[in-house]
């Protein structure tokens, strides 16, 4: 079975849904082990025409064979839905995907942190009054957030899931890392980084999804004891 073959996924999810220990898997109560229906070929063609790109092959085949969203890592895959004629992903953080610049290249191949080079937050001991410190602290964090959360950092990233606490993972759609899964850890000031398998190779969508499925089955098995 090739990684582009998703014929086993729904059966495995059905077994997980029925497993006594499946509640032990993080995020499973949110997605309930259910996938939304796959896209029709005509629907996918419309998605890609609107985005002006072709989605990476592994994710593309998942949409056509397995489902358009639902059961998946953490709280599940953001579903792709058509609203008033426009296709878009929905979920907590799905709005971070800029549909209008998704066809522009994500330039990075190595981890980077937009917060690098920023000064340290102000120290209250350096100020004569609480009011002065509060004003300086507010100004600092405003500058920090403007730089760290600049949408230009995530051009070419398709956000696919929410891990909780504003940590999210995304698929690189364009650029030299196309097809790789990356983590957006800016919520913890840790920046962006590619995800790797146990051998140190970048994770593509198929390996990323199947690794979650393997771990979920193992956790459900242990949770049932």
From TrEMBL:
One Pfam family, short name: SMI1_KNR4
Taxonomy, superkingdom: Bacteria
SMART domains attached to this UniProt entry: SMI1_KNR4
TM region(s), chain numbering: none
Knr4/Smi1-like domain: residues covered: 38-211
InterPro entries named in the record: Knr4/Smi1-like_dom, Knr4/Smi1-like_sf
Annotated protein name in UniProt: Knr4/Smi1-like domain-containing protein
Organism the protein comes from: Nonomuraea jabiensis
